[in-house]
Amino acid sequence: MKFISLLSTVWLVLASLAIAEPSDREEAIAFKKVAKLQQQYQKNIHKIIKQRTTGCTNKKLLRRQECLPPRQLHLNNTFIRIPGARSRYDDFVGVQVLQTHFVHNDGLFLPFHRQSIALYEKALRGECGYADWSLSYKRYPQGQPSLTGPLCITLPGGGALNFPPATGGGCVYSGPFTPDKFKIYLGPTGLTPKGPLDGLGYNPRCLSRDSSLQYSLYARPTNASGLIDGSEDLAAFNKALDTSPKGLHGAGYFMMGLVAMDVFTCSNDPAFWLHHAQVDRMWAIWQGQDLEGRMRQVWGTQTQGNVPPSANVTLETQINFGVVSAPKTVGEVVSTVDGDLC
Ligand SMILES: *[C@@H]1O[C@H](CO)[C@@H](O)[C@H](O)[C@H]1NC(C)=O
Ligand SMILES: *[C@@H]1O[C@H](CO)[C@@H](O)[C@H](O)[C@H]1NC(C)=O
Ligand SMILES: *[C@@H]1O[C@H](CO)[C@@H](O)[C@H](O)[C@H]1NC(C)=O
C-alpha cells in the first residue's frame, strides 16, 4: 500500500511536470519583460546615437524622410532566372528560393532577413505608395482576420518533417489575399509535389493557410523572453531561434501552415514579412542589451547546417539579394541605426 501510494505520488509529480505549461500570468509577465528588454535596447541605441555628429545621427533618425525612387521593375532579369515570376512580389519570393540554402540555420540567416525586410519595406513605400508601413499595433483595426477556409489545395508532407493536421485550412477567404485578388505563382519547392522548375516555374494558385494551435504554443511570450534572456552569444541565440522546428522561427511558420510551411517559398504568404520583422525584433533587442559586445558579433558559416562546408561568416561576408538589390556585407546590416537601415 505504501509502495502504491508512493508510486501514485511519483506519477502525480511526473504528470504535473508533463503539464507544467506556463500560466496566462506567466505569459503576461514574459510579455512585459520583452517590452522592458526592448526599452533597454532603445535606451542603449539612443545613447550611442546621441554622441554622433555624422552618419546616422539622432536628427537624421527623427527627421527621416523617404525619398521615393523611380519605379524599378526587374522583370526582364527576373524572367531569366525565375521564369514563373509574374509580379514584382515574385522578385522577392524568387530571391528567397534561390538563397534558401545559404541563409537558414547558418551565420547569414539573421543578416539576410534583416536586409530583405528593409528592401521589401523600401519597395512598399517607394513603388507601391505605402506611406505608413510602420502602423502601430495600437492603431490596428480590432478583430483578427480568420485564417482558415475551405480546402483549395493540398500540400502533403513537409520534406522530412511530418506535421499533424492543424485546425483545417485552405484558401484565405477574406481580406486582401482572397483568390480573386491575390495569387501566388512560385513553388512549391520544399513540399511535395514540387511546382515546375523546382518551384521557379509558373504555378498560379491561391494563398492557403492552416493555423496550428500546437505550434502556436512554441511562440509565446515566455519563449521570446527566454530566447533573449537565455542566449549568451549569437551562436546560442541562433540555435534556439532557428535550428529546431519548435524554435520561434520555425514555430511561426508552422503556426500559419500550408504555403508558409515551404521553407523555400514561404514568402509567398505576405505574413512572412510580419513574421520576420518579429524575428528581427528579437535579434535587435538581444543585440541592444549589450551593444558593444553583441552588435558586431557574427557566428557560423555560409551554408545551411554547414552542408556543404563553407567559410565562416565575417563582417566582410557578402550577402546576395539577386534581382532585388546589389549585395551587402554582413557588417553593413548588423546595426539597425547605420547605413541604409538608419
Ligand atoms: C531582356 O533580356 C534579354 C536577354 O538578356 C535582352 O536581350 C533584352 O535586351 C532585355 N530587355 C530589356 C528591356 O532589358
Ligand atoms: C517554448 O515554450 C514551450 C512551453 O513552455 C516549451 O515547451 C518550449 O520548450 C519552449 N521553446 C523554446 C525554444 O524555448
Ligand atoms: C571557423 O569558426 C570555428 C568556430 O568558431 C573555428 O573553430 C574555426 O577555426 C574557424 N575557421 C576559420 C578558417 O577561421
Automatic annotation (TrEMBL):
GO terms for molecular function: metal ion binding; oxidoreductase activity. Residues 269-280 form the Tyrosinase copper-binding domain. The keyword Oxidoreductase applies. Residues 1-20 form the signal peptide. PROSITE patterns: TYROSINASE_2. Keywords: Metal-binding, Oxidoreductase, Signal. It comes from the Eukaryota. This is Tyrosinase copper-binding domain-containing protein. The lineage of its organism: Eukaryota, Fungi, Dikarya, Ascomycota, Pezizomycotina.
